[in-house]
Amino acid sequence: MSNRLAHATSPYLIQHADNPVDWWPWETAAFEEARRRDVPVFLSVGYSSCHWCHVLAHESFEDEETAAFMNEHFVSVKVDREERPDIDAVYMEALQAATGQGGWPMSVFMTPDGRPFYFGTYFPPEPRHGSPSFMQVLEGVRAAWTGRPDEVAEVAEKIVRDLAGRQLDYAKAGPPREAELAQALLGLTREYDPASGWFSGNTRFPPSMVVEFLLRHWARTESEGARDMADGLCRAMAESSLFDQVGGGFHRYVLRRPDGPLIPHFEKMLYDNALLCRVYAHLWRTTGSEEARRVALETADFMVRELRTAEGGFASALDADSEDGAGRHVEGAYYVWTPEQLREVLGDQDAAFAAAYFDVTEEGTFEEGASVLRLARTGTGADTDRAADVRAKLLAARELRPRPGRDDKVVAAWNGLAIAALAETGAYFDRPDLVERATEAADLLVRVHMGDAARLDRTSKDGRGGGHAGVLEDYGDVAEGFLALAAVTGEGVWLEFAGFLLDIVLQHFTGEGGQLYDTADDAEQLIRRPQDPTDSATPAGWTAAAGALLSYAAHTGSEAHRAAAEGALGVVKALGPRVPRFIGWGLAVAEALLDGPREVAVAGPVGGELHRTALLGRAPGAVVAAGEMAGAEFPLLADRPMVGGAPTAYVCRHFVCDAPTTDPRELARSIGADPSGDR
Asked: Using CA atoms, how far apart are residues 398 and 354, in angstroms rounded to an integer?
């Protein structure tokens, strides 16, 4: 019989609806039930494409004996971290403070008033490698709860007290200046290995936001070191197994095994692919690299082909696991190849070429004789043409394999990132279909996630809102997407929607000292109001909001929005020189602030030569407004008419403008675009 999760909008929760565990969603009634029964709450946090979440569920949550013990002695609450990042952030902070590490699945035991007292992540079904079994953990927590209640209460109170003392206030520090950004670049240089093209460490996540900072830093300072590092990082990612060499798009991360090869964790996330699509498009804008163009377009096409939902939004993720040829649920089965499988699809000659090109060996580079694909060599131009044909044939054959599961949940923030990426990629490479897909996703966010309400919902599924309040990253990233769409389409309504969202940021997410919070002041109160300024897999809400606030201020001249952006960037001044890899988007926004950012108004047709030149400008964070009716859609166009009846561009900083120009080459020189017009 299904439990209470059967009617959830989260695919992750629905995956647990038939567990024998009597799961509750996160709701007041669950904690009231724990209080009534005088039992602790077991909180399990994960997400649908999390491999070890599935393992724990299969080993323990589907086990009748384990479930019976949980049902008798606990109230068990299941949370999708992607749907409720506020809950995840608060208890992950507590987990990391208590154990020095974190991860998912996250397992937290807490009192009926939400105070945690014991933590963990994955627990095996039997003791293993020094870790207790999950049943041993359950029995130990029950014994402490019934036999040592005073000790449990004391631990819980101390944890909550420690968390309460962690409030951050960087607003008074002021935004970073040249010295801090130079220190950040130096720190990145020390961690970067030019030979491999990666930063140090065996687990390698895509540093998309750091690359954006490096590209903007080069554009502002002409630092060849920054440009070369950005190019090296992007080349290493694109040639490795992090990139799906057959279908495009990026996996979550790669892990270097002791024997050398990089092995991906095969889940594919919308946010990684949106960020990387935009980064490779910007790399092409900077260097003209044909490889960057290919990767940007293949990543955009992957998002549209495999993540787009029937309602026009973009799904959250693809699982790492799928069925293999023997019917087993195996990580990476959809993506790996053996030499024999290549021969079956390609024939002997092309299979030999593909094996050499993609490093498919008889021994295998992954498991059971299979290999993950990577570029063993880039080859000649002819090889590249042949590789494209091989890719198409392998993709067609792969489509016949059992597909990984898809999390169809639409997350506002990640769709905002996808809108920005698709709009710009479509504009750069003359792909109006990509701009159209971005517009459809933006329409969905307005229609379903904003609707008639005054606020933004974080998630939806099948065109139905999830009912969970948007957090700061949702407001910042969706505003960023709307601003990018406004620049590409010349439709000022997207600027208006961005302003609406950013006004809410000022009213409900900003503290008295100018510091930002991840949740609104009228959101559900947890044991702590979450406040994380560091960029990890996505821009932090803090830095996402700073970037959108700065761009909106450049569009409108709003001092309130600019002051809020400058205050928010105080965190970059504090953290940039020390941990630049974890504040990459903040550093990129700081580059825009130091450059102005520049305001480019094009009085003339949307999509014309001047407009395209403006969009290709490399000036960090430059905002673009285009239209033929002065001031009708954008404040930047007010009182800036066409000169002599010809399309005219105005380049300004803080609304102080250079002389207008009708010459695309002159415009290109003033905003760092390629004067040849090729890009």
From this structure: 15
CA distance 404 to 601: 45
Average pLDDT over residues 199-212: 92
Structure tokens belonging to residue 61: 């949550």
Amino acid code (one letter) for 598: R
Strand partners, 651: 600
- pLDDT (0 to 100) of residue 450: 93
d(CA 297, CA 411): 22
| Helical H segments across 379-459, by residue range | 381-398, 412-428, 432-444
Distances (CA, A) of 159 to 147, 148, 625: 20, 17, 50
Neighbours of 528 (CB within 10 A): 20
Confidence grade of residue 679 (pLDDT, cut at 50, 70, 90): low
pTM over 0.85: yes
Distance CA 574, CA 514 (A): 15
Crossing angle, helix 339-346 and helix 348-358, to 10 degrees? 130
Model confidence at 273: pLDDT above 70? yes
- Residue 377 to residue 147: CA distance in whole angstroms: 64
pLDDT in tens, 74-101: 999 999 999 999 999 999 988 888 787 8
Cα atoms found within 13 Å of the Cα of residue 458, Cβ hemisphere only: 22
Residue 289 near residue 235, CB atoms below 8 Å: no
SS3 453: coil
What per-residue confidence (pLDDT) applies to 500? 96
Residue 7, CB-side half-sphere exposure with 13 Å CA sphere: 2
- Per the CB < 8 A criterion, the answer to whether 269 and 277 are in contact is no
Nearest residue to 448 (alpha-carbon basis) of 427, 431, 463: 463
CA distances from 98 to 95, 108, 113, 145, 535 (A): 5, 11, 19, 19, 22
Cα angle 334, 338, 343 (rounded to 5 degrees) comes to: 110
Cα dihedral 531/535/540/543 (nearest 10)? 100
Domain 4-164: what homologous superfamily? Answer: Glutaredoxin (3.40.30.10)
**How far is 239 from 243, CA to CA, in rounded Å?**
7
* Orientation of helix 224-239 relative to helix 270-287, angle to 10°: 130
Partner residues linked to 318 by β-bridges: 268, 406
CB 547 within 8 A of CB 585: yes
Q: Name 275's Cβ contacts closer than 8 Å, sequence gap at least 6.
A: 206, 208, 209, 417, 421, 538
Residue 57 has, within 13 A of its CA and on its CB side, a CA count of 23
Q: Quote the DSSP letter at residue 516.
A: B
Q: In the Cβ-directed half-sphere of 52, how many Cα atoms lie within 13 Å? A: 13
Q: Which fold has domain 171-320+406-595?
A: Glycosyltransferase (1.50.10)
The closest of 170, 232, 225 to 207, measured between CA atoms, is 232
| Dist CA 165 CA 93 (whole Å) | 12
Q: Where are the domains of the chain?
A: 4-164, 171-320+406-595, 335-398, 598-671
Specify the DSSP class assigned to residue 203.
E
Nearest CA-CA partner of 543 in 585, 510, 513: 585
Q: What is the pLDDT of residue 630?
A: 59
Using CA of residue 248, residue 254, residue 257, residue 263, what is the dihedral sign? Answer: negative
The CA distance from 494 to 483, in Å, is 6
**What is the pLDDT, as a whole number, of residue 675?**
47
With b for 16 or more beta-carbon neighbours within 10 A and e for fewer, the 312-325 pattern comes to: bbbbbbbbbbbebe
Looking at residue 383, its pLDDT comes to 74
Beta bridge partners of residue 650, listed in sequence order: 601
Interval 545-566: pLDDT, tens: 999 999 999 999 999 999 999 9
